[in-house]
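WARN retry 2 of 3 for item q-0093 after timeout on previous attempt; input resubmitted unchanged.
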Amino acid sequence: MSRSEQHVARIEHVSKKFCRNLHRSLRYGMVDLAREAIGLGPTAGLRRGEFWAVRDVSLSIRPGESLALMGANGAGKSTLLKMVQGLIRPDEGRIRVRGRMGALTQLGAGFNAILSGRENVYINAAILGVTKSEVDRRFDAMVDFAGLDHAIDDPVRTYSSGMRARLGYSIAAFLQPDLLLMDEVLATGDIAFRMKCFAHIESLIAQGTSVIVVTHMIGRIAQACNRFAVLDQGSIVYDGEVEEGMRIYRRLLRMQEAGNDEADDEGNPTARSTTAANPATPPSNAAPSNAAASSDAPMPSSVAMPSITATPAAPLPHYLGAAWIDEFRIIDVDGNDVTETSYASPLRLRVRLTSEERLDEFRLRIRFDGDGETLTVIESPRRTDDPLIGSRTVEVEVTKLNLLAGTYQVCAELIGGRPQQTLSERRTVLNVRSAARAGRFVLSHRWIDGQTVHVD
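OK item q-0093 returned
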C-alpha cells in the first residue's frame, strides 16, 4: 500500500457517553471497570442520567489532509479530539492513529507551571517519544518561532495565556508530527502570531502532515483546510467541501439562535450530507437512533438543519466568519495595481467586503508591518449607522507614503461582531524605494530657524 492510500487516522463508529450526576458517574465507572476486568466490556446503551456526547462518528484522515471540525458549543468536538489523542476511551467503536501525533487541545495542557519553558519543552517532547538530540536540533527554531527568547528560562507560571499558546504550538508543530490536533488554542494571542501559525500549518500540510483543527475562525479555515465537517449534538451532519460546509455551519448556528428548528416527517436533518471521498454518497454516521437507550433521561434529539436552498430567516446576530474580505488591493491614483512605489508617493488601499448576514457594527484596520513589527495602523471609525449586507468596496487614500526603502507587509482586517473581533484579514506586499536614509519612516515635520522655515 502506497503512502497516499494509507490513513493517518481512522475513526470507526465511535461513541462516548457521560453522566451528568457526579456520584452516579463514579458508580457507573466502577461498574464498567469491573465488567472490563471480567471481559464483558462497558454497558451498552444509556443508563439513568447519561447522554451521548459523541455518537457513531466515522472519519478517516489521509496524509496531507486538513480537516476543519466545526460545531456549536457542546457538539462534541473537544471530546472527539480527546479520544483521538488517547486521553479518554470511546465506549463504542475504535480509533487507529498511524505515526507521531502532536496535540494542542487545551491551553497550557501538559505544562508544569513550576518548571521553566525550556524544561517543559524537553518533558513534552519526551512524552511524544522525541529524543533529546532531536529536540536539541530544533530547540532554537521552536523558541524563535514562539518569540520567547527572553522568557524561555522563566517558570511557566509567569507566562501569559498568549505566551503559553505560543510555546504549546511550537512544541506540537515543530516536532514534525504525522497528525496535528488543534482545539481553539489559537483563539488566544495576538493576530500576528495566529497568522504566523496558519502559514506554518499550511507548510506542514504541504510536507504531508495531516491536521484536524477545531476553531471558529472560519474565514481563515477556508484558506487553510481542504475538508470541512460539521458536528451537531455528537453526530456528523456534514463532511465534505469547505465552502458548502461553512454555509451549513452558519445556518445551523442561525437556527439554534432563532430556536426555529425544522425537520422532515421522520425527524431527520434536511441538510444534504456528503463525504469528502464521494460527495454523492451519504455518510454512514448520519443522525443516530436512540431506540437502544435505556434511560429515564432520553438522548437529546438531533438539531434539524435546513436544506441548502432554504431562505434565511430575519437578520440574526452576526457570527464569526459570516463576513469577510473578498479582495485587498494597493492601487495608484489611476486605479492600477501597485506592488512597488517610491517614498512620498500617493497611493490608495481598496478593500472589497462581503457579508452573508447583516453586520450592524464594523470597522476596517489596515496595518503596515516591517521585520515582524507593526509600524503604523490606519483604522476607520466604527460604522453603526450603515450596516454591511452583501458586497461593498471601501477605499482609503494615503496622500503621502512616509515609509523609507524596504519590503512591507500590508494587512487589511475586518473587525466586527459583539464583542468586537477580527472576522477576516488579507495581506499583500509593498516594496518601497527611497534614498539611503536611517530608520523605517519619516515624520511630517518642519525646521524653524529664525525667520526661515525648512519643510521636509
